[in-house]
Design brief:
With about 150 residues, this protein is mostly helical. The chain has 7 helices and no strands.
């Protein structure tokens, strides 16, 4: 149970093809993770008993969280392309909001920008009221921002 290289394809290696070829390995990893959790729980119980004895604390196994992060090989150029597409889409949304800002007013513009950018509306509203900024000020500030390269992370 591992990498399945016998699957036929059109020669185009996409992330979906890569993931499907590793499906059997993922099943094996599920079994291994269950066994590993059992072993780690036994070890953690011993360690927690020692900590509780020495420090006089009352830690329990339920206080411990185990998190396994799996990663598989992916097509990096496809990942970068997807990130760039998402960034371009977000930029178009922001530009559209800023272009109609004068028609919809400052408050609706701020709400829409908060929705697109996943910002806290109430916090930003308070900050804008303190500084007295308007939508046209925001448009001028955004025009001066130089976008970051998506693939440099």
């Amino acid at each position: 149970m591992g990498f399945n290289s016998s699957q036929t394809g059109d020669g185009n290696i996409t992330n979906i093809v890569i993931k499907s070829r590793y499906a059997l390995l993922d099943l094996k990893a599920n079994k291994l993770e269950k066994r590993l959790r059992r072993l780690l729980k036994q070890l953690i119980k011993v360690v927690l008993d020692e900590i509780n004895f020495i420090n006089g604390t009352g830690y329990q196994i339920t206080d411990v969280k185990m998190k396994f992060d799996r990663s598989i090989m992916t097509n990096e150029s496809e990942n970068v392309t997807n990130e760039k597409t998402e960034a371009d889409t977000q930029q178009v949304r922001v530009n559209t909001i800023l272009n109609i800002a004068e028609q919809i007013g400052d408050e609706q513009t701020l709400k829409a920008l908060c929705d697109v950018m996943d910002w806290d509306y109430e916090e930003l509203k308070d900050q804008v009221q303190k500084e007295g900024n308007t939508a046209s000020d925001a448009r001028k500030a955004l025009e001066q921002v130089i976008p970051e390269d998506v693939g440099t992370e």
